[in-house]
Amino acid sequence: MHGETKVPGTQGYGEHAATLSERYDRVDVLALYAEAWPYFPAPPAPVLDLGAGSGRDAAFFAQRGHPVTAVEPCAPLRQAAQAKHLDPGVDWLDSSLPALEGLTAHYALVLVAAVWMHLDLKERQAAMPAVAARLAPAGLLHISLRHGPIPLGRRMFAVTTEETVALAERCGLTPIANWAQAPQQRGNQKAGVHFSTLLFRQAGP
Q1: DSSP for 25-62?
Q2: pLDDT at 87 exceeding the cut of 60
Q3: Are 70 and 98 in contact (CB under 8 A)?
Q4: 50 has which bridge partners?
Q5: Of 126, 113, 157, 145, which is closest to residue 11 (Cα–Cα)?
Q6: I want to staple 85 with a disulfide (CB 3.0 to 4.6 A). Which of 55, 95, 139, 171 is the partner?
């Protein structure tokens, strides 16, 4: 397993975990996933939340009847989320991309929300096969890409829709939808940050 200091992408998160958790939990999850909702599987389909942060999304899906595995490598964020979101339907795991050590199950839905930009090119190339391997037959991958200025003290890289689609297709995933998405957080709005959301489908049985 990985601790926070062993995962470069968690840089700048642990020391601000309380503030970030509060900020993340203010996001309207229904609005965040509004366009993707018609594609999501009905409960109780198993969900994998990679980079679960404050536990906001994991708790949301668990409350709707999905068994959720929430992966968060930043210990302060993970511990704060576990203390706040006590839903027994969420199983928390200390792991990280690209290796996803400790994960062997398959999921009907995998969420990678504003995480991909923390990986450099080699890590992204290694991460996509690892993510694809966790999808059940006909499973759905929902991935959001962050674009814009990099906050001071964070490790982020430019990511594109084109590259992400190419990596996913190389792993046998079929792109089924993508769209631009404006940020909900006021700080991101002021900074000119925006997002791209992409959906991919694993081959059926």
Answers
A1: HTS-HHHHTTTTGGGSPPTT--EEEET-TTSHHHHHHH
A2: yes
A3: no
A4: 71, 112
A5: 157
A6: 55
In the predicted model, is pLDDT for residue 4 greater than 50?
Answer: no
Q: Which domains, ranges and CATH numbers included, belong to the chain?
A: 4-201 (3.40.50.150)
Which DSSP string corresponds to 81-135? HHHH---TTEEEE---TTT-TT----EEEEEEES-GGGS-HHHHHHHHHHHHTTE
Residues 171-186: tens digit of each pLDDT: 999 999 999 976 565 6
Contacts of 89 (CB under 8 A, 6+ apart): 62, 63, 65, 66, 67, 68
Quote the tokens at residue 174.
């079929």
Handedness of CA 25, 121, 127, 95 (dihedral sign): negative
Residue whose C-alpha is closest to residue 59's, from 35, 83, 87, 38: 87
Model confidence, pTM: 0.91
